[in-house]
């Protein structure tokens, strides 16, 4: 059967198993089977017999590629699979950070210079403060919070959540779909498409992960229980995540990615693009309070952390800035994403 024309939604799937829309032979001989995504002994056997017949009687290798070369960034990174590139990004970003804290505060540091090795083989370097966070006021007993603790007292924070609950019916669809990483909402705003914005979407994925790695360190340090654990009146719209409430991960992610996209697109402050991205990040965070899974101050502090991480990530991505550890892959990705908006 000849392949029929397909709608635009299939454009990003050319060459992959299932694109043809047929079952049968494609499940055992299509690209998914060849790549190993599907196990196909039939295809493996067919390739084996084909190779044996095509090379029958040939002895020696007459025209080997004997060139000596090391692939440069522009040739290497497009060859590596996305999951391999993701590991390179992760190593660079996490290697840059150091986390420390006490009962009331937690601080995230980043490298200030490229580490050096002394004569004894010891690696040394300096760190600078990237972001400092204080335990929220609502997590102390009444009257015991130290000066500068962010947010309101527990009754005030809980009352704010209850007041916001009246918006749940209106925000239901957003709340439930934003349980997943909200890439679709940013894509709708900027009309992102895999065919034209592959690098931008990959960079966004890195940003979402980077926010999660850093955010979970703060969450684990403070170990703040959710509002539904404090009051049976909260009755969250969905099951609360199985980790700490403070700071809010959705806010960290949304503000980090929002800042990345503003930088990528070159959107000026006050422009429609910048204003819409700001409004979207605000709304995603607000939806978590409306749903009953976060206190208001979780969102505010998470937003600040997200912006701090974005600034660090953007600085890393500029090849003109000397990276404290290897950042070639990240710089290659940033350049590719930036080119999609020129």
Description of the structure:
This protein is mainly alpha-helical and 342 residues long. The protein has a domain at 83-96 and 152-339: Phosphatidic acid phosphatase type 2/haloperoxidase (Vanadium-containing Chloroperoxidase, domain 1, Up-down Bundle), CATH 1.20.144. The protein has helices spanning 26-29, 31-35, 41-54, 73-79, 82-95, 154-164, 168-177, 183-190, 198-222, 227-230, 249-265, 272-290, 296-317, 328-339; strands at residues 97-101, 105-111, 116-117, 123-124, 127-134. The strands form two sheets. Strands 1-2-5 form a three-stranded antiparallel sheet. Helix 9 packs across helix 13 (296-317) and helix 12 crosses helix 13. It is globular. The chain starts with 25 loop residues before the first helix and ends with a helix. The model is unreliable at 1-22 (pLDDT under 50).
CATH superfamily of one domain: Phosphatidic acid phosphatase type 2/haloperoxidase
Helix segment count?
14
Give the CA-CA distance, first to last residue. 42 Å
Q: Examine the secondary-structure arrangement and name the CATH architecture of one domain.
A: Up-down Bundle
Mean pLDDT over all positions: 89
What Rg do the Cα atoms give?
Answer: 25 Å
